[in-house]
Design brief:
By secondary structure, the chain is of the alpha/beta class. The protein folds into 2 domains: about 5-120, Rossmann fold (3-Layer(aba) Sandwich), CATH 3.40.50; about 140-335, Rossmann fold (3-Layer(aba) Sandwich). The chain is built from 12 helices and 11 strands. The chain has helices at about 20-30, 55-60, 80-90, 105-115, 155-165, 180-185, 200-205, 230-240, 265-275, 295-310, 320, 325-335, and strands at about 5-10, 35-40, 65, 95, 120, 140-145, 170-175, 215, 245-250, 285-290, 315. α1 runs parallel beside α6.
C-alpha cells in the first residue's frame, strides 16, 4: 500500500483531542507530509495545521484525504460520508484507519470509481498470517505496554526508537496500529486481525533479525482493559519482548470508555511479566513513560521522581523530557551498542 503525499487531514466533528489521535500523531511525526486540516462545526480537536476546505486542500496540491479521527468500534459516521465523497470528486485518494471498509459505503465506492481514485483501508491488511509459534528468534525487542488505552504507547515507542538510533543502536519502530502504519509505512493494525492470528501477526511485525538489532514495538490497549485485553495479550506473546516500558497517564481514575478502575503501574509490571514469560522467560521492565500533559513542569518532574523512586526504574515523559534515561537502563541491562 503506497499512500500518495501530501495529506489533507480530516478531523470531522470529534469531541476531544484523543478522538483525533490519528491526525495529531501524523502531524507530530510527519508534519512535512501534511498540508492542512478539515474540521466540521463542533470539532474540539486541532492539529495546529491551517484550516482548509476540501476544495482549498485540493487546490494546494493534496493527494490523499486522511480520515484522521477515531471512535469506539471504528465506525464511519453517516454525516462524514459527504466530505469523503467531496474529496474524491476533488481528485484526492482517501485513506482511513477505521474498521469499516471505505468501499462498503455505496456512495464512497461509487465516487472512487467515478473519479478513478484509490481507497486505502489501512486497518485492513492484505497479508495472511500464521498462528503464533512462540519460538525464540534472534534480535532484541522492547514493547510499550499501558495502564490504559490512549496513554502514549505509540509516542513512547517512536521516541524510544529515535533515542536508541541516536545512541548508536540499530533500532526499528514496528507499527501495530493505524496511525503507526501511516507514520512508518509498514505494519499491521492488530485490532483488525482475527483473534487466532494476533500473536502470529505480532511475530511477523517483529521478525528474526540480526542479534544486535532492536525492534521497538508499538503497544495496544492494556492487559487490564475489559474491551482490549485480548489484543494486548496476543501482542505480548507474539512480540516476545526482552524489555517493556509501562506507559501511564496520571490524572485518570477510570479506564477510557468503561467503568473499570485504572490499575497501578506495579500491577501492570507484574501482570506483563507473568503473561510475557510464556514466550520470553527473561522479560523485564526497563522503564516508565508518563504522559504529563495535564501537569505543569514542577508537578511533572516531582511526579516522575516519585514514580521512579517507588519502582526503582527510570521514569520520564518521552515527549517532554526524552528517553535517554531509559536508554541508559537498556544499556546497563543488555549492553552498549
Amino acid at each position: 500500500m503506497e499512500i500518495a503525499r501530501p495529506y489533507l487531514l480530516f478531523l470531522g466533528d470529534v469531541p476531544d483531542a484523543l478522538a483525533a489521535k490519528t491526525a495529531i500523531g501524523i502531524v507530530d511525526w510527519r508534519k512535512d507530509w501534511c498540508l492542512g486540516q478539515v474540521r466540521m462545526p463542533g470539532c474540539a480537536a486541532d492539529t495546529g495545521l491551517a484550516d482548509m476546505s476540501i476544495a482549498e486542500g485540493a487546490e494546494a496540491g493534496a493527494k490523499t484525504f486522511i480520515i484522521g479521527a477515531v471512535n469506539a468500534g471504528g465506525r464511519l459516521p453517516e454525516h462524514w460520508v459527504e466530505s469523503v465523497v467531496e474529496a474524491l470528486d476533488a481528485g484526492m485518494d482517501v485513506a482511513s484507519g477505521l474498521h469499516v471498509r471505505l468501499a462498503s459505503v455505496p456512495a464512497i465506492k461509487e465516487a472512487a470509481e467515478r473519479n478513478g481514485r484509490q481507497l486505502h483501508d489501512v486497518r485492513h491488511s492484505s497479508m495472511g498470517f500464521a498462528t503464533g509459534k512462540g519460538t525464540k528468534r534472534a534480535g532484541k525487542r522492547i514493547l510499550a505496554v499501558g495502564t490504559d488505552c490512549s496513554v502514549g504507547k505509540k509516542y513512547t515507542a517512536l521516541a524510544m526508537d529515535k533515542a536508541m538510533n541516536d545512541r548508536g543502536y540499530s533500532s526499528t519502530f514496528c507499527a501495530t496500529g493505524q496511525t503507526g502504519v501511516f507514520i512508518s509505512g509498514r505494519g499491521v493494525a492488530l485490532d483488525a486481525v482475527i483473534a487466532d492470528f494476533i500473536s502470529g501477526a505480532a511475530e511477523w511485525i517483529s521478525p528474526e533479525t540480526d542479534p544486535d538489532n532492536w525492534q521497538i514495538i508499538e503497544g495496544q490497549g492494556s492487559l487490564f482493559h475489559p474491551s482490549f485485553a485480548g489484543v494486548t495479550l496476543g501482542l505480548l506473546h507474539g512480540s516476545q519482548p526482552d524489555g517493556f516500558i509501562v506507559c501511564h497517564e496520571p490524572t485518570r481514575t477510570k479506564m477510557r470508555g468503561v467503568e473499570a478502575a485504572l490499575p497501578t503501574i506495579q500491577q501492570v509490571i507484574d501482570m506483563t511479566i507473568a503473561c510475557g514469560k510464556l514466550t520470553n522467560p527473561d522479560i523485564r521492565c526497563v522503564g516508565i513513560a508518563v504522559n504529563t500533559t495535564a501537569l505543569d513542569d514542577d508537578e511533572a518532574l516531582a511526579y516522575l521522581a516519585k514514580v521512579g523512586e517507588k519502582h526503582g526504574l527510570p521514569a520520564t515523559d518521552p515527549v517532554r523530557y526524552g528517553m535517554e534515561a531509559i536508554v541508559d537502563k537498556v544499556s546497563a541491562e543488555f549492553g552498549a551498542p
